[in-house]
Each structure stands twice: as structure tokens, then as C-alpha cells.
């Protein structure tokens, strides 16, 4: 296996956690390269569920895991997650969890501003998780951020925090009419976090380079999905980082020539959490059936996910943006029992059929899906281990998706467990 990037092709929640966990067996290291604890990965191992928000899924396989410079980290959440995993018997320590010294740190004022803005925006709110992700990336871009390298230096940390607190409290109190925060309390709390996390902080770029120079394989784990990308998603209903494959390099300090494969994870249908356009959304009994059978609730927030038919306009957009070399189809089993299935092959916009995602939300809101209808299947496929064992109509559905995407399907997931997986084409 080479150095592989895993990305979501839709609006997140595609099942990346399971696939990263599955492929981690063949990798030496796993890297998380963007996002924060606004994302959640769910893995089921031997019937036991594990949920991670910051620690890469490869930790369950005993691999060396890295949190890259492109991630924004809430130390309280990270430490809680580390304790949670350790409590479940997972080996986790400085020997197998490394945090980039260049990763930016989320502070209480980031979360306070996140929630104050959402409350202030009312009906115009984006639907953020309130985890402070966006405000932390704002500070990074405006060069006001505090990275782990600064957090570990008491003098620099105190100076940076003091400057930031004046600005953030002014905004909270005078603009949002919210309560200010205590600089002293935050300083004390984060000084303790720095002490506890110091052994884990490293130059991740250098360590990854050494790993690959030794001929060892690295798996790059993205969060969210392509259409939540800050540049290429359905802006402004997006996340605050680049979720596409190109950011695997920028968010970890690795040159693009090191990447060998890019796998796009796609649900057999489409879901979305929060506000924003969703052309194939089903507001009927079929949508409710998919939501219930697929247990479509956010791993991070518990919010119900909106459900709809598979959208090939969205998938093909992701294939282009990420230069996908393969697809992984997840939750195919959820579609069982439906008499017929639909695939969106294009959009009708003002009487014209288009095959791309309009940038202007006003245009996207006017798009009507153009569907192909395929027959469904009644069989339970969760125990199927080989492609040949799938019902004929399930095969036809997959073959049509593959043909429309122009990208080969490597893996098919028919359930949440590791064993509920069909390897259609092995990854070299």
C-alpha cells in the first residue's frame, strides 16, 4: 500500500472513520490534516462502538497517529478523548500520538464568539457546531492565533493571550452583548493543558518525512466532506478549512509527490447536517426510512441528518476536485427493502440540464434533480463477503454509479463493522 488520502465526497458523514480504521491495518502511520472536533468518526470493532473527534482512527490499530498543522485543537476535548480511549483499553501515549507544534489551539473565547454570532444571526445562521472552529481559523488567518509552540512558551503564551483577550472581550461585551471571559482563569487552565500535552508535541512534518524515507506507508485522514470545503463547497454553508485532498499536503507538511492514491468515500445515498442547499433531499416517507434505518444522527452533535437520493453531480464534482483514484461505497445495506432507487444524474436549471454545481446559491436553490430509476432489492446484504454474492439489482446500482463517476469502486461497506466489508478491487 502507498500513501493514501481519504476524503469525503459529499457533505461529510460518509463513513470515513470505518474505512480509515480498515485501511490502517496496512499503514504504518495515520494523519489527520484539517478540521477540529466539529467532526466525528464512528468505528465499530468486535461489536463495540468507538467515537473519535480529534485522534485519528488508526489509534485502534496501534498505529502512530499524527494531528497535523492544519487541524485546530481544543486541548480539553483532546485530553478527554485520550482518557476515553485509554479507558477502553486503547494504547495511547507520546509514543503513538504526535501533535504538530504548528497546530492552532482553540480557546474559550473562540467558542463564545461562535455561539454569540449564531445567536445574533438568527434565521441567517450557518448552523455551526459551536465548537469555536471558525473563529480559531479566523485568528490563524489574521495572524492572531496561538499555536502549540507558543502555548509551551510561558512568556510568549501570556503575552499573546493578553492581547487576544482584550480584543475578544471587547467584541463579546460591546458588540454581542454577551458576558466577558476571565483571562486569569483561561491562563491557568491552558497552562495545565500545556504541561499535560508537552510530551506529545512534535515537528510532525519532519517525523512524517523520516517515516516515508524509511519506506513506511502513511494514511491521510480528512474530516467533513468535499462540499463543506471553505473554497469549493456550498459557501457560506461550509466548514472553515479546506477538506479536499490537496490540503492533505498543506495540513501535514508533506509534499504532493508523496501521495500515491486518493480514495473518495461516498454513501450509497446522500445526507447533510445543518443548513444549506440539498437538491436531492427527500422530505417524505422514503427520506424518513433512510434516516431511521441508516441511524443518521451526527457523531459530534447528535443532530438528525437530512437524507436524500445519491447525487452524481455532487460526486462527480468531488471526483474532479480531489483527483480521485478510487471510490468506497458505504451504507449500501441501508437501501435494502426499497422497491426502487433513484440516482440524480444532472440538474434542471431554468429549463436547461446542467452537470455541474452552480456557485451561486440562488441558482443551486432553483436546481431540480434529473433522476434515473433503478430497481431495488429485498435481501439483507450485511453478511455478504464477496461482490458475486450481492443481489443482481445491487450490482446494477453499483455498476451504474461507477459508470457515471468514471472512477472504479475499490471497497463496498454493507454494515458498520470491519467484517461487514467487500473488497472489490484491492488497493495496491
Pick out its properties.
Adenylosuccinate Synthetase, subunit A, domain 2, ten-stranded mixed beta sheet, Adenylosuccinate Synthetase, Chain A, domain 1, 428 residues
3D structure, described in words:
It catalyses: IMP + L-aspartate + GTP = N(6)-(1,2-dicarboxyethyl)-AMP + GDP + phosphate + 2 H(+). With 428 residues, the protein is an alpha/beta fold. The chain has 3 domains: 159 residues, Adenylosuccinate Synthetase, Chain A, domain 1; 94 residues, Adenylosuccinate Synthetase, subunit A, domain 2 (Orthogonal Bundle); 127 residues, Adenylosuccinate Synthetase, Chain A, domain 3 (Alpha-Beta Complex). It is built from 13 helices and 20 strands. The strands form 5 sheets. A 10-stranded mixed beta sheet has the order 9-7-5-2-10-1-11-15-19-20, with helices on both faces. Strands 14, 16, 17 and 18 form a 4-stranded mixed beta sheet that branches. It has a two-stranded antiparallel sheet with strand order 3-4. Helix 3 packs across helix 4 and helix 3 packs parallel to helix 6. The longest helix has 22 residues. The radius of gyration is 22 Å and the shape is globular. The model has no long low-confidence stretch (mean pLDDT 94).
Mean pLDDT across the residues is 94
Tell me the Rg in angstroms.
22 Å
Largest beta sheet, briefly? Answer: 10 strands, mixed
* Uncertain runs: none
**How far apart lie the N and C ends?**
5 Å
- The rough form would be described as globular
Number of helices: 13
Helix/strand structural class: alpha/beta
Helix content: 25-40%
Task: Please give the structural blueprint.
Blueprint: E1 4-8, H1 16-24, E2 29-32, E3 41-45, E4 48-52, E5 64-67, E6 72-73, H2 75-87, E7 97-100, E8 104-105, H3 108-121, H4 133-141, H5 148-151, H6 154-175, H7 183-197, E9 201-202, H8 204-213, E10 218-221, H9 247-250, E11 261-267, E12 270-272, H10 285-293, E13 306-308, E14 310-311, H11 312-322, E15 326-330, E16 340-349, E17 352-354, H12 361-366, E18 368-375, H13 392-405, E19 409-413, E20 421-423
Parallel strand pairs: 1-10, 1-11, 2-5, 2-10, 5-7, 6-8, 7-9, 11-15, 14-16, 15-19
Antiparallel strand pairs: 3-4, 12-13, 16-17, 16-18, 19-20
Helix pairs in contact: 3-4, 3-6
Amino acid at each position: 500500500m502507498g500513501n493514501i488520502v481519504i476524503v469525503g465526497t459529499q457533505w461529510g458523514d460518509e463513513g470515513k472513520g470505518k474505512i480509515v480504521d480498515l485501511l490502517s491495518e496496512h499503514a504504518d502511520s495515520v494523519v489527520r490534516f484539517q478540521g477540529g472536533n466539529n467532526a466525528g468518526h464512528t468505528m465499530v470493532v468486535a461489536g463495540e462502538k468507538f467515537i473519535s473527534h480529534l485522534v485519528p482512527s488508526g489509534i485502534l490499530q496501534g498505529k502512530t497517529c499524527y494531528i497535523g498543522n492544519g487541524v485546530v485543537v481544543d486541548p480539553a476535548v483532546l485530553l478527554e478523548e485520550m482518557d476515553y480511549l485509554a479507558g477502553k483499553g486503547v494504547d495511547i501515549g507520546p509514543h503513538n500520538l504526535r501533535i504538530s507544534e504548528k497546530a492552532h489551539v482553540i480557546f474559550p473565547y473562540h467558542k463564545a464568539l461562535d455561539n454569540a454570532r449564531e445567536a445574533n444571526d438568527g434565521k441567517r445562521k450557518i448552523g455551526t457546531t459551536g465548537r469555536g472552529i471558525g473563529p480559531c481559523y479566523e485568528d490563524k488567518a489574521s495572524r492572531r492565533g496561538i499555536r502549540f509552540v507558543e502555548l509551551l512558551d510561558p512568556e510568549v503564551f501570556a503575552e499573546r493571550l493578553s492581547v487576544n483577550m482584550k480584543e475578544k472581550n471587547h467584541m463579546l461585551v460591546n458588540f454581542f452583548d454577551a458576558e466577558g471571559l476571565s483571562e486569569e482563569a483561561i491562563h491557568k487552565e491552558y497552562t495545565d493543558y500545556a504541561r499535560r500535552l508537552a510530551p506529545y508535541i512534535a515537528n510532525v512534518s519532519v517525523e512524517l518525512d523520516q517515516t516515508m524515507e524509511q519506506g513506511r506507508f502513511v494514511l491521510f485522514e480528512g474530516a467533513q466532506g468535499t462540499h463543506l470545503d471553505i473554497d469549493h463547497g456550498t459557501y457560506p454553508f461550509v466548514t472553515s478549512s479546506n477538506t479536499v485532498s490537496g490540503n492533505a499536503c498543506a495540513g501535514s507538511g508533506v509534499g504532493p509527490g508523496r501521495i500515491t492514491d486518493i480514495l473518495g468515500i461516498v454513501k450509497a445515498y446522500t445526507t447533510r447536517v445543518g443548513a444549506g442547499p440539498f437538491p436531492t433531499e427527500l422530505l417524505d416517507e422514503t427520506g424518513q426510512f433512510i434516516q431511521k434505518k441508516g441511524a443518521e444522527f451526527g457523531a459530534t452533535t447528535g443532530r438528525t441528518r437530512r437524507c436524500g437520493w445519491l447525487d452524481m453531480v455532487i460526486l462527480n464534482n468531488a471526483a474532479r476536485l480531489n483527483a480521485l483514484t478510487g471510490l468506497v461505497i458505504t451504507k449500501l445495506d441501508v437501501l435494502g427493502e426499497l422497491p426502487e432507487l433513484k440516482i440524480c444524474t444532472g440538474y434542471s436549471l431554468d429549463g436547461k440540464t446542467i452537470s455541474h454545481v452552480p456557485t451561486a446559491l440562488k441558482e443551486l436553490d432553483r436546481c431540480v434533480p434529473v433522476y434515473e430509476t433503478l430497481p431495488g432489492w429485498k435481501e439483507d446484504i450485511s453478511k455478504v463477503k464477496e461482490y458475486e454474492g450481492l443481489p443482481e439489482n445491487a450490482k446494477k446500482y453499483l455498476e451504474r454509479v461507477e459508470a457515471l463517476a468514471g472512477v472504479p469502486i475499490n471497497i463496498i461497506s454493507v454494515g458498520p463493522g470491519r467484517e461487514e466489508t467487500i473488497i472489490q478491487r484491492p488497493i495496491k
